[in-house]
Known about the structure:
Layout: E1 2-11, E2 14-24, E3 29-33, H1 40-47, E4 55-60, E5 63-64, E6 67-70, E7 74-77, H2 80-87, E8 90-93, H3 105-117, H4 121-134, H5 150-162, E9 168-172, H6 180-195, E10 199-203, H7 207-213, E11 216-221, E12 224-229, H8 231-236, H9 241-253
Parallel strand pairs: 3-10, 3-11, 8-9, 9-10
Antiparallel strand pairs: 1-2, 1-4, 4-5, 6-7, 11-12
Helix pairs in contact: 3-4, 3-5, 4-5, 5-6
Adenosine-5'-diphosphate binds next to strand 2 and helix 1.
Amino acid sequence: MIKAQDVNKTFGQLQVLKGVSLDIQLGEVVVIIGPSGSGKSTLLRCINHLESIDIGNIFFDGQSVAFQEIPGGNRIPVKRKDIYNLRRQIGMVFQRFNLFPHMTALSNVMEGPLTVLGVTKGEARRLAESLLAKVGLANKANSYPSQLSGGQQQRVAIARALAMNPKVMLFDEPTSALDPELVGEVLNVIKDLASEGMTMLVVTHEMGFAREVADRVVFMDEGMIIETGTPEQIFSSPKHPRTREFLSNVIRNYDNHSFPQVV
Ligand SMILES: Nc1ncnc2c1ncn2[C@@H]1O[C@H](COP(=O)(O)OP(=O)(O)O)[C@@H](O)[C@H]1O
Ligand SMILES: [Mg+2]
């Protein structure tokens, strides 16, 4: 579904991604963990083409996201039209919910299908109602974002992303801005999506969630993938010293009952 090959990305002098390669299969849930500043968000943004890349390539469902090969061995950036086409197939949920503040939950979810997919108002409404029900917010359809808790807003944001019928969902620390007691309701929605077979790439610091839901865990540090494995491997017997150090810091800094025991 997603294939990143030797992705390199610099911002000015700073090399943020240093040859990242990652394959995500259809239906797979991959969780990325790693310290702040290691390039996790940048990698997600490159997959969605919110950032361009310098070297390497990224394929989505067989199609190049970043560069197109042209005869003569050269390559050119993909066309704008193809980027829009790509983005509509990838749902993205950020740390901050980014809902339209002047629109109800229902209208927020209807907006994409109405303006981008061109469905009728009735269809958009039915779709939005069913998606709000799916994320447990059927009774909040007419609430404005300011009337919702952070966890509820984030669930609306997930429903809004799902309304575009994406092939893949990318989550960038979806619970990091939430009060601790609201984290679980959002993780549960993501967990449900995973069990329905949605292909997902999730950046999170919620190690208990990673352990439970991930098919594979990827540890990133300083712009590189340091280690990849099953949750069992990464959390119970991390191979790389940096992975071990990161996990023990995470456990020490957050006294969270959901974190697994790490040796
Ligand atoms: N648009 C940008 N311009 C300049 N530097 C950036 C930009 N976006 C991210 N960075 C830098 O790239 C590095 C990786 O950032 P990021 O991908 O956000 O890491 P993470 O999500 O793992 O915390 C950081 O040092 C950050 O300051
Ligand atoms: Mg980030």
